[in-house]
Amino acid sequence: MLAFKSALLASLLVGGVVVFRALSQQPAPIAEPVAMLSSAQLKADVAILRRALEELHPGLYRSNTKTQMDAAFAQLDAACSRDLSREQAFLALSKFTAGIRCGHTFLNPTNQSRETARELFERHDKIPFHFRWIDRRMFVTRNLSEDPRLVPGSEILEINGSDSGALLDRLMTIARADGSSDAKRVSLLEVRGDERYETFDIYFPMFFPLQRPSFDLRIAPPAGAEPIALTVPALTYAQRAAPLESQRAALKGGDAPVWELKQLDDRTALLVMPTWAVYDSKWDWTSFLNVSFDTLIERATANLVIDLRGNEGGSSVGDLILSRLIERDTRLAAYARFVRYRKAPTDLNPYLDTWDSSFKDWGESAVGPSDGFYRLKRFDDRASDDAGDVIRPSGKRYAGRVFVLVDASNSSATFEFAFALKQHKLATLVGQPTGGNQRGINGGAFFFLRLPASKLEVDLPLIAQFPMPWGSERPDTGVSPDVLVSPAALDLAQQTDAELEAVKRLIREGQEPRR
Q1: Is 154 exposed, middle or buried (CB count within 10 Å of its CB: 0-12, 13-18, 19+)?
Q2: I want to staple 323 with a disulfide (CB 3.0 to 4.6 A). Which of 81, 350, 394, 424 is the partner?
Q3: Are strands 84-85 and 36-37 parallel, antiparallel or unpaired?
Q4: DSSP 3-state assignment of 115?
């Protein structure tokens, strides 16, 4: 998939000027006129949201006290004391859900109605570059404009007169993450070109409305050149999304490979895994991984590098990888799964959409209640007890050195995988701290809460992981890498993969094999 993705991006860069010129000739207003939602409608939606969260969300009070959540609900209700546009309601609800500090509770752009997506996300207001945040500073990684001065490594000092650091502060108020994992929040606010709806693209125009479809930039070119000012046209949604949508169309429901295993040299292989969301693919990923490990063993490949950067999670792919790295049954850190309810309140059912109706009634699988929770004894991934989940070896063991490239986007299944690798010293983690949270995350099963008046959707996770024994204290952080690598502006300018280069240095220096 990576080769296919790279080819698409290359075609965007090489032939993008022609595509952008053609599309830019099509009229696309910054925002279409929208109908207003009455205060009564909004307050009715807030009442449904509050009841659903308090009855069903198992992690509502993980990072906030009930008093704090009561105050947050009151603040949201006050924000809805006047008529609001759907955009204003979307922004108010996004600030509220971000305050829950759960990385899986948010107004998921991909789960909104087509009407909402067209109205709020698919406008002629997209920045014509990709970027990363480094030490709260915005650096260009890819130029999608026709202005050759906007080169990778350039620092964006201002956009339309607003300091980039001030932009980040405003946007952090809607960024989702678990607990105090602010690195995940910052990562979410980058534009990398790998999401259908980029968080920055959605919320930047809501906080800083555009007066025309262009951006006045003040930038500092690489290599210490004096800052310059330039104006670049905004991109339409179609221009931004075309390459990614083509890729998604090819993968969705198909059997195209999602990952790629390639040789870096005769002793080192690289496994690139940009996503673990493979549940919608007909591709046999389990066979791919098993064949890949068999091939590595057969070729006596000394080093394996697994690239998980940008991979939030998805299916429990890490379990299979772990099973090929261990010699004996391995018990992971002890977490237990809890739900807030046994049977969802009947009056909420009309607003609860999901893919598995059993989520509405856990039945005897939800044991309790105790301390306001039910212990879940079925459904989620693996059988578990208070001592922790057990991964069992499968196939021949790969005994070479393993390096895993991680970053703050790893916040769900990839966070759990990184945690297991570090816990058992099965690999060397290289990169930046992960997202997720060692105190536990919420996920596993979901309701898509559809608010009837605003027609907005909120992802509501149903299963909470808590460390065992109950009451155990864990750090309010993700997983720290063994080797911290923070790319610099010069790396971006020279298009150097700082993390991969760090791994190559470790290999050359002969790091001891894992035990």
Answers
A1: buried
A2: 394
A3: antiparallel
A4: helix
CA distance 412 to 315: 9
Look at residue 380 and tell me whether its pLDDT is greater than 80: no
Q: Which domain holds residue 224?
A: 2-30+123-250
- Decide if 318 is inside a domain: yes
**Is 110 a member of any domain?**
no
pLDDT value of position 511: 55
Ranges of beta strands (E only) in 371-435 are 373-376, 390-391, 401-406, 428-431
Q: What is the pLDDT of residues 340-362, one digit of tens each?
A: 999 999 999 999 999 999 999 99
Whether pLDDT at 12 is above 90: no
Compute the distance between CA of residue 413 and CA of residue 311 in angstroms, rounded to an integer. Answer: 9
Q: Write the single-letter amino acid at 362.
A: W
- Give the number of C-alpha atoms closer than 13 A to the C-alpha of residue 57, restricted to the C-beta side: 28
Same domain, 173 and 206: yes
206: tokens are 């809501």
The two structure tokens encoding residue 131: 């970027």
Report the distance separating Cα 111 and Cα 460, nearest Å.
Answer: 12
Q: Is the peptide bond before 469 cis (omega within 30 degrees of 0)?
A: yes
Structural domains in the chain (count)? 3
**261 and 403 share a domain?**
yes
The model's pLDDT over 186-226, given as tens digits with 9 standing for 90+, comes to 999 999 998 899 999 999 999 999 999 999 999 999 977 89
Q: Containing H/E element for 20?
A: helix 2-24
Tell me which residue of 178, 177, 200 sits closest to 189, measured CA to CA: 200
